[in-house]
Fold this sequence. Notes:
Shape: globular
Structural class: alpha+beta
Largest sheet: 6 strands, antiparallel
Number of strands: 14
Helix content: 40-55%
Oligomer: single chain
Number of helices: 20
Distance between the termini: 76 Å
Amino acid sequence: MSKHFRNYRFYITILIFFKIVLSIENPLQFNHNLDRLEQRPGEVVSLFLDIKIDEGWHIYATNPEESLRPTEIEYFDTTIFDQRGIIEEPIKTFKYDKNFDMEVGLHYGNFILKQDLLLSKKIKPNRYNVDGTLSYLVCDSSKCIPKWDDFSFELNVEEGETRTKYVKNIILDHNISVKSDNMLTDDESFNNALEGGFLSFILFAMGMGFLALLTPCVFPMIPITVSFFTKHGEDNDTNPVYAALTYTIGIIIIFTSLGLLLAFTLGATGANQIASSPIINLFIAGLFIYFAFSLFGQYEIRLPSAMQQFSLKQENQGGIVGILFMALTFTLTSFTCTVQFVGLLLVAASQGETFWPIVGMLAFSFTFALPFFFLALFPQYLSKIPKSGGWLNSVKVIMGFLELAAAMKFLSNADLVLGWGIFTYHSVLAVWVVITMLMGVYLLGKIQLPHDSKLDYVGVPRLVLSIVFLTFGLYMSRGLYGESIHGLIDSYLPPKIENKSVDTIHSDEFAWIENYEQGMKKARELNKPVFVDFTGYTCTNCRWMETNVFEEPPVKELFKEFVLVRLYTDAGENHREYQKMEVERFNTAALPFYVILTPDDKEITRFPGMDTDVSKFVNFLKEGLLH
């Protein structure tokens, strides 16, 4: 038999195999129907799937604990139902599955699946076409075929009060509830964690601490921590592990103590008031500039003699006062980005609670501070490596430039509150461009600072980093000419403040009304729901949402259906009133905080804090339009 013939036979066999597989008809068919023809908002409607499976075939149970590939029902529109019940199934057959290495539940022949669906109380009377997909794995003795069968049914939602005979408690879906498809608000999650007991609450607080690490306010503290402990590690008497532990424990204790102290004295908005205080922001900016010039080699930072003597008396502590001072700085700079969760605790503390706020703040701050233990530890060990002086000094200088850039952020915060008009969007961006370009030029050896060694040649790592900084500087310069730059950079810059009239609402542009009463008046005139944005001039998370989420096409399209109201809680006219409204009416101090109201001032739904998932925000806006 020739080689070519054997090849042809192989290909023919493959083609025949695929022809057989593709020609197999679906061994599962089903019909679907509802328990009644008319429904009302807030009622439970039951969906029945009448399934018929060919002999010799089976599908897996709906409970994920009984299969690694459970049978599921998925829905595309998650706003019609408030909750989905478990898929009720008949008696199933259990057998050991060697592929899954577990006991699985199987269904054969003819049977019915039932699912209870709780209609949202906010949907309007209308006819709704609901699209769903039955997802399953159908198998025989030799193979399994994954299938996704689409189906649809019509809901005829009529006017009228919810009928008690169609109201019942349902056991939530094993896999997902509709509410979490859209979102669980932070206060709902907070309450659920409290109800779950001590361990549940601790895990929730630690989870929120981890999420807070992803917020923009944390990034400036990375180079500042590295630069401080790089310089600190040059002292031969220091113990790196002890210094890093002192810093981390200092953050935990100061964060918890300061937050609770502010809650008990200034109320739930105390943390926001401190974070937006122009005095605090000017102090932090001055501190960063002071650190930067020290890293440039202009002078050595020395504590006042009294503090030095205090530190020296503590064996092996190596500047404990300075480290705790850095921990205080870290706490002050991060408050605005952490208040999404902390704000809930501070509201509880301001209302007289003590145990849960203390436990929550400790768990949150522990998780939040933990990565900075390693950021504080490693630079000190690097500083002790022999012959680390030359390249390590370059690292310190680069960190000094980054501290100057961070100082601009805090100067602009103070400017926004005090109304100077000096550190504006374009002026801060221009300084950042210059600083970034200077970093690139410095790495090429064109700038010499006091402690720099003479650079005989430019190594490859220096050259690559120089190119990165120079390119990044050129990229940011686009923003000086009105072109868009990355939303993360925009979120650190001051907002572009434009004077807009309340009456300049057009279909092709959005005018934000910055007065609550005027916004509600406009909503009553237009009979539109109101989107209220509780924000702050100094809120980095707020800028992130505005530049990364608000500018998405689906969001901009939905915004046309709302009257848009933006309320600043840290400065400007009526900011105290809006602070009080957020805490007393909505029971949170989070920034940003979004809520949708009816024209007659009733709450429809809310969306707390920063979230990178645009689809969640879109679903939130859609839910606001269903009322």
